[in-house]
Amino acid sequence: MNKYNRVFAIVIDSVGTGAAPDADKFGDVGSDTLGHVGEAYQGKLKLPNLQKLGLSNLRDTAIEGVAKAEQPLGCYGKMTEISAGKDSMDGHWEMMGLPVTEPLSYFPNGFPDELLAKISEFSGRKIVGNKPASGTEIIKELGEHQLETGDLIIYTSGDSVLQIAAHEEIIPVDELYKICEFARSLVNGPEYVVGRVIARPYVGTNKDNFTRTANRHDFALKPTSKTDLDALQAAGIHTVGIGKINDIFSGQGLDEVYHNESNMDGLDHLDNVMAKDFKGFCFVNLVDFDSMYGHRRDPIGFGQALMDFDERLGQVLTNLKEDDLLMITADHGNDPGFKGTDHTREQVPLLAYSPSLKQGSSLGIRKTFADLGATVTDNFGVSGSKVGTSFLTELN
């Protein structure tokens, strides 16, 4: 018999909690997303719901403004990534029992000419950019050029991504998606294996008001083998993906999916799913922390997004039934107080709560993100990947 009839896992995208043990391999020693956001707020960061679940308890040093709870309501700990990269795909796949063990292709000097030539020929458009860049900065730099010429803006980052930015009035979204699907077909191996091809539509009339839209779409590498989502689905457990979960897993292992316009829209979807006569696993990604504030190195915006999430979290907690389990975690860091504009290699929070939980306790430092998926499959009596270690029995 299931311990919990419904399990909800919310990934607050990029909300890391301090440099991982191998951060030196990524140039990320000293990164601490939550710590630096707290410092930027100088004690005025208020996260009462996350605080009472144990958000600061899982840290050696409390987040400034978020004291350690004397008696946390939830179980708390942190997880360490074993995947080769620090991208969203690596983090989410590992959570579902499929660590990315081989490094994907990265392009610190831009993409090879032969690859771009094929995209140009397919699209009938010239290509500009072709360098690592912040998404907002590159459309500021080249957006007006695109308005005049219709050229494709292609760029990358410190992650394994090929991103194509296009003004929606110059290159319609459907056309951009087709170009991205073609680009995806070129980077599935064996020569180039890219984690995600990302469509980055934007609108506006000039560099001072260009704005990226919610029509972003991630064309991810298909999972290289079965994930815990597949195992759950095959066992007849209903699976729901909210936000970019569908993109990251290429739709595999998901029965029901919802696209997010924003964090708040994603939480609206979660509220609706919770209100249904639903039993199974609901996997949620809230990406605004990452895309709007982490990459833009905006700690104040990041903190406000956390406070907005915390306020809505109160409603989620109220909606939980006695036989529901809620887990909150992240897929990597993206420290807005750190150098550069890329993701940061950090450990991530792990908070677990159910109204039936008798008392909160420490879950310690988990050796892999896969412990989350192992706990979900264990709860539903399903044989999963066997990569991680379930902490189900620690939730008392």
UniProtKB/TrEMBL annotation:
Function: Isomerase that catalyzes the conversion of deoxy-ribose 1-phosphate (dRib-1-P) and ribose 1-phosphate (Rib-1-P) to deoxy-ribose 5-phosphate (dRib-5-P) and ribose 5-phosphate (Rib-5-P), respectively.
Catalytic function, reaction form: alpha-D-ribose 1-phosphate = D-ribose 5-phosphate; 2-deoxy-alpha-D-ribose 1-phosphate = 2-deoxy-D-ribose 5-phosphate
SUPFAM superfamilies: Alkaline phosphatase-like, DeoB insert domain-like
Residues that coordinate or bind Mn(2+) 1: D13, D331, H332
Family: Belongs to the phosphopentomutase family.
Protein name per Swiss-Prot or TrEMBL: Phosphopentomutase
UniProt-annotated location(s): Cytoplasm
Binding site for Mn(2+) 2: D290, H295, H343
GO cellular component annotations of the record: cytosol
GO biological process, one term: nucleotide metabolic process
Pfam families, alphabetized: Metalloenzyme
Keyword Isomerase assigned: yes
Cofactor comment: Binds 2 manganese ions.
Chain ranges of the Metalloenzyme domain: 6-382
Keywords in alphabetical order: Cytoplasm, Isomerase, Manganese, Metal-binding
Cofactor(s) it depends on: Mn(2+)
InterPro entries given in the database record: Alkaline_phosphatase_core_sf, DeoB, Metalloenzyme, Phosphopentomutase_DeoB_cap_sf
Enzyme Commission number(s) of this protein: 5.4.2.7
Source organism per UniProt: Listeria aquatica FSL S10-1188
MF annotations from Gene Ontology: magnesium ion binding; manganese ion binding; phosphopentomutase activity
Pathway connected to this protein: Carbohydrate degradation; 2-deoxy-D-ribose 1-phosphate degradation; D-glyceraldehyde 3-phosphate and acetaldehyde from 2-deoxy-alpha-D-ribose 1-phosphate: step 1/2
The keyword Metal-binding belongs to this UniProt entry's keyword annotation: yes
